[in-house]
TrEMBL record:
This is Transposase IS116/IS110/IS902 C-terminal domain-containing protein. Residues 6-38 form the Transposase IS116/IS110/IS902 C-terminal domain. It comes from Geomonas silvestris.
């Protein structure tokens, strides 16, 4: 196997996890709040996958709050 010493991201529904990962890839590049959070984690010495999963969780909590409040996306929401 090619993952010796690495951990796979698993748990939950694979399609939801994949969509959240792809959304986070885009958010890390184009969303100022998520990008700043990601860069702060990387600067603190976190590994790529650790930083990405943390950003996925942050994005998910923002999206859940938006759905709960029934509000559209606003940049200051996160």
């Amino acid at each position: 196997m090619g993952m010796r010493g690495k951990r796979a991201i698993f748990g939950g529904r694979a399609t939801v996890r994949t969509m959240l990962y792809m959304a986070t890839l885009s958010a890390v590049r184009y969303n100022p709040a998520i990008k700043a959070f990601y860069n702060r984690l990387i600067a603190a010495g976190k590994l790529y996958k650790v930083a990405m999963v943390a950003c996925m969780r942050k994005l998910l909590t923002v999206l859940n709050a938006m759905v709960k409040a029934m509000q559209p996306w606003t940049p200051d929401f996160s």
